[in-house]
Design goal:
The complex is a heterodimer of chains A (about 170) and B (about 180).
Chain A (H helix, E strand, L loop, with lengths): L5 E3 H23 L5 H27 L9 H17 L5 E4 L4 E6 L12 H4 L1 H16 L4 E8 L3 E8 L3
Antiparallel strand pairs in A: 2-3, 3-5, 4-5
Helix pairs in contact in A: 1-2, 2-5
Chain B lengths: L2 H9 L4 E3 H18 L3 H27 L7 H17 L4 E3 L7 E6 L21 H12 L3 E9 L8 E10 L10
Antiparallel strand pairs in B: 2-3, 3-5, 4-5
Helix pairs in contact in B: 1-4, 3-5
The chains are: A alpha+beta (about 170), B alpha+beta (about 180).
Amino acid sequence: MNTSAQVADSCFELLHMQMVDYFIAQAEKEEGVGKDPLRLEKKVHSKLQNLGFDVGHRLAERYTKDLQRFTGQLNIIKFICKEFWQAVFRKPVDKLQTNYRGIYVLHDNKFSWISKISGTPEQCKPYLAFACGVIKGALSNLGVKASVMVEISPQAACEFRIVDISQ
Amino acid sequence: DNPAFLELAAHDMSDKINAELLTMTYGAMVQQLLKDHKDVKTVNAELHKMGYNIGVRLIDEFLAKANISNCSNFRETSQVIAKVGFKMFLGITADVTKWRQDGKQCSITFKGNPLNEFVEIPPKYSKLRYSNILCGVLCGSLHMVNLLVEAEFVQDVLLGDPDNEIRLTLKEVLQEEYHDDEV
């Protein structure tokens, strides 16, 4: 495939929303509506994250095929913040923080996948599970076993917290 | 209107992303559907439904950005879908062929399909309409402009056919009705 092949971003955005809707509906079908909202939410989150993991894993494989091997974990994270973020989320990360001991916090002041969703941060939550999976999958492909969590503030500002869990 | 010019313009009209993200996400979604529903027919229907929901929203962006005038008949509509719509959203060109005499059925054919890249269909899924979401999108978006259509994949490169072909059949042109009411 020609790597410059391009599609409209709205195609992806709308597909992504349909996916989230599908998983919520599917979970409600399996669990029963309104029974245990927390359980339901967890189920939706983990399914979307698993799906994202596969996608991120493959994307990282493609995007790094012409690059030299990374030296050190920080360089892997920097690649995720710049090139990978740009390719997948259409802009680089705004700020990276780390404690130099396996915890990284990536700040995106306007996360593109939820920038068009109107709703409280709480309502936006399911729309970030897939993204967390994508990041986790990409990291895994590059040799970093990590957990990825996200905090949402108003105006689609997101804080992704990556924790190296290999130790 | 010169279709070639329209095509060229259409490509630049929306924000673009690399096709891989869409391709792989869609692939993962289809796999999930196959896992959730053992019956391939249900999967086809789910994909169609998802497409329909996408179509009813995509049409807004299309009308807002494509800068086209009203289509006066189904022929024109089909032409605009193939030449402008496919280019604008999927970055590919499509042709309208095989018109039925009454002008209510035609085929939209295209060679490349970003959804299909890297995909192989195992023989046991030969009834799967992998890109059926596109049919849903067509139905959904045309419904929003009062055209009730049926769309169906009749050829798919994934199944060894030379082209992708969606048969589009116009079922009904909906009329908007307004009734007098008291003020």
